């Protein structure tokens, strides 16, 4: 027991004396949170909207003022004709344009029907669709405003609500994703490297020629990274809550419990990798490439899994991060309890048991 | 009782393609300081790893203090000290932390066996707060020896402990080994340096995975079968070329600033006459003398005999 404690203490020394490891460990989540939270956001905000108002009447001016007052658009009225808009699109300086034809207000008031043209840059379909939606809803709202008494006998007014995320905060989707990604990378990469480093430096030779049980080497390696990963998880959680204003709806204890399970799963995979490689580079490459790409693609936080062909959906089932992502979304964002996530938890537990037994079974008590 | 026994050990790598240890049998008596002498790639490290239970032999049996290297590997791991060829301590831990770690690993304390390591540890104690990676080569070896000794092993395996260490530290290191031997510890040490062979009680000359000779250093030298001569000239390369053409000469090889020569006819040649003959061949500043062979001469002779298929 005392041997194990001394061994674990030694592992902590290794981690704290290696600035690079620490930097990877705690720099990675901060960088990812900042990147995903502020730079790589798919929300549309402050889009420059080119407006050509050939009508210049009460109605068009009112609509333009409404658009100006929303936070989505910055209105640019410098273009004077259609050709100027067309050139701006080609140059890429304009992404969307709204054109009022001459006599817009007149048509609206007398014919009861008028047209506007919305132009968007379809080479960025997501943004284009969002812009069209925003503009349509502003126009619809204006329409209801100017004709308060409903002329139509039957009207369906869709009452929209985005459940669990009323404000459309984009952070909500990627926070669980970043958690899964960071924990996966840190745990697998750093543990596999930690074991392989002993082989590379030759210290494994001395460790093996000692009464210390080889399996305890694995345990001693895993414990510090479990502790550090939990600290890491706390860091991400704190950043999410205080910097990105994500509300944790479910039980914090449950979050920590399932995260611990996920961390152990990742540590086991890291140990599994370390058993089969002999150089730190291979171990790092395997855990980075072998884990990061599938985690990015098959977790569902970047690309919806439902749209993938069945074969890729099958692959996604063996990616542990996918299950963890579902659990975190359910607990953190929806506030669901254990009864809703037991299936995912069971899958994760199964994966942990398999990876851990493979790692333990393949641990070599001799060289090569 | 023999502390270490190797019985027809064979070890190959890469599915039998590379033969590292070829049918080696050896015995090391308890309390002996035994040297395994041979160049790089001779199979020394493989033998050490088999004895320290790190590798399984393909054929044959090995035992340390009567314990089988395959079956009783746990008991062996508890009772031997092993210092691998490469510096294998934690570079980012301090001297004191390394020693404390290895003492605890073997279930003992530094204090319990301090007598054994005192002489060595006192020398590196002023640097006990320094990271092991920042020590000089000689100090690293001393620390590694301390770590291998701290649990009072029955047998100490030192794989090339003096490689990459300066001449003074090497000398000190061998003195330490002699002190340890007096404490009753069996020491098996390997080295590629032939001059260190004479510091062992018995040596095994190993080449290409095969043991060529096992004996005391004195006996190895004494059994050198022919007379040995050293000759030098201003241009050593030209001298070597013309000596190789001389049919009366059995073997010749560069050895420092001299060329060592043995003749086919073991009758004493006239050195004066030989010198004149060489001068006549155009060599300048020729100087020839009879010398007594060293371990290295024996090694080279045994190696050549093996290559030429002679007994």
Automatic annotation (TrEMBL), chain A:
GO terms for molecular function: ABC-type transporter activity. PANTHER family: MEMBRANE COMPONENT OF ABC TRANSPORTER YHHJ-RELATED (PTHR30294), MULTIDRUG ABC TRANSPORTER PERMEASE YBHS-RELATED (PTHR30294:SF29). It holds the Pfam family ABC2_membrane_3. Coiled coil: none annotated. The chain crosses the membrane at residues 21-40, 174-196, 216-246, 252-271, 283-304. It comes from the Bacteria. Gene3D superfamilies: abc type-2 transporter like domain. Belongs to the ABC-2 integral membrane protein family. It comes from Chitinophaga fulva. It is a multi-pass membrane protein. It is found in: Cell membrane. Residues 139-366 form the ABC transmembrane type-2 domain. Its main location: membrane. InterPro entries: ABC-2_transporter_component (IPR051449), ABC2_TM (IPR013525), ABC2_TM_bact-type (IPR047817). Keywords: Cell membrane, Membrane, Transmembrane, Transmembrane helix, Transport. The keyword Membrane applies. The keyword Glycoprotein does not apply. This is ABC transporter permease. One of its GO terms (cellular component) is plasma membrane.
UniProtKB/TrEMBL annotation, chain B:
Pfam families: ABC_tran (PF00005). Residues 4-233 form the ABC transporter domain. Keywords: ATP-binding, Nodulation, Nucleotide-binding, Transport. One of its GO terms (molecular function) is ATP binding. The keyword Mitochondrion does not apply. The keyword Transport applies. CDD domains: ABC_DR_subfamily_A. Belongs to the ABC transporter superfamily. This is ABC transporter ATP-binding protein.
């Amino acid at each position: 027991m005392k041997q194990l404690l001394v061994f674990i203490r030694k592992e902590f020394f290794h981690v704290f004396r290696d600035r690079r490891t620490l930097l990877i460990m705690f720099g990675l989540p901060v960088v990812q949170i900042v990147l995903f939270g502020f730079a790589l956001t798919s929300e549309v905000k402050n889009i420059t909207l080119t407006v050509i108002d050939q009508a210049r009447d009460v109605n068009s001016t009112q609509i333009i003022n409404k658009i100006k007052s929303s936070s989505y658009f910055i209105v640019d009225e410098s273009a004077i004709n259609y050709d100027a808009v067309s050139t701006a699109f080609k140059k890429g300086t304009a992404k969307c344009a709204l054109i009022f034809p001459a006599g817009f207000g007149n048509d609206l008031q007398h014919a009861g029907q008028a047209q506007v043209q919305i132009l968007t840059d379809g080479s960025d379909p997501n943004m284009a669709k969002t812009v069209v939606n925003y503009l349509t809803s502003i126009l619809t709202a204006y329409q209801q405003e100017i004709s308060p008494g409903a002329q139509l006998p039957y009207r369906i007014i869709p009452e929209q609500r985005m459940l669990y995320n009323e404000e459309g905060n984009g952070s909500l989707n990627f926070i669980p994703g970043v958690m899964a990604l960071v924990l996966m990378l840190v745990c697998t990469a750093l543990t596999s490297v930690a074991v392989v480093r002993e082989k590379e430096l030759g210290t494994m030779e001395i460790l093996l020629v000692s009464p210390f049980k080889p399996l305890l080497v694995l345990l001693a390696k895993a414990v510090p990274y479990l502790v550090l990963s939990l600290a890491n998880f706390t860091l991400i959680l704190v950043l999410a809550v205080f910097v990105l204003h994500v509300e944790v709806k479910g039980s914090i204890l449950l979050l920590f419990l399932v995260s611990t399970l996920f961390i152990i799963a990742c540590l086991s995979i890291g140990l599994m990798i370390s058993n089969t490689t002999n150089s730190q580079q291979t171990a790092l490459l395997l855990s980075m490439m072998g884990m990061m790409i599938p985690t990015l693609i098959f977790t569902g936080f970047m690309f919806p899994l439902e749209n993938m062909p069945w074969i890729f959906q099958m692959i996604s089932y063996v990616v542990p991060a996918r299950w963890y992502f579902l659990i975190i979304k359910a607990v953190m964002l929806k506030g669901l309890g254990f009864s809703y996530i037991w299936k995912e938890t069971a899958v994760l537990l199964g994966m942990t048991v398999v990876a851990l037994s493979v790692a333990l079974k393949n641990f070599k008590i001799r060289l090569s | 009782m023999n502390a270490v026994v190797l019985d027809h050990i064979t070890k190959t790598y890469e599915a039998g393609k590379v033969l590292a240890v070829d049918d080696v049998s050896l015995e090391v008596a308890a309390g002996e300081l035994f040297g395994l002498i041979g160049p790089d790639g001779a199979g020394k490290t493989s033998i050490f790893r088999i004895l320290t239970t790190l590798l399984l032999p393909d054929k044959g049996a090995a035992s340390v203090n009567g314990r089988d290297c395959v079956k009783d590997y746990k008991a062996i791991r508890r009772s031997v000290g092993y210092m691998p060829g490469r510096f294998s301590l934690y570079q980012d831990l301090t001297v004191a932390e390394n020693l404390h770690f290895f003492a605890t690993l073997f279930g003992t304390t530094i204090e319990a066996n301090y007598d054994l390591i005192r002489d060595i540890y006192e020398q590196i104690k002023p640097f006990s707060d320094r990271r092991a990676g920042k020590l000089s080569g000689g100090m690293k070896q001393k620390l590694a020896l301390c770590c291998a000794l701290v649990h009072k092993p029955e047998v100490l395996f030192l794989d090339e402990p003096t490689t990459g260490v300066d001449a003074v530290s090497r000398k000190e290191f061998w003195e330490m080994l002699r002190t340890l031997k007096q404490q009753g510890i069996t020491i098996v040490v390997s080295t590629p340096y032939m001059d260190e062979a004479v510091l062992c009680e018995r040596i095994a000359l190993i080449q290409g995975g095969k043991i060529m000779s096992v004996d005391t250093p004195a006996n190895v030298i004494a059994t050198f079968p022919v007379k040995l001569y050293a000759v030098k000239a201003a241009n050593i390369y030209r001298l070597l070329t013309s000596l190789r053409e001389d049919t009366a000469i059995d073997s010749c090889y560069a050895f420092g600033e001299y060329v060592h020569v043995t003749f086919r006819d073991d009758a004493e040649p006239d050195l004066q006459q030989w010198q004149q003959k060489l001068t006549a061949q155009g060599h300048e500043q020729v100087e020839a003398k009879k010398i007594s062979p060293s371990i290295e001469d024996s090694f080279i002779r045994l190696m050549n005999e093996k290559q030429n298929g002679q007994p």
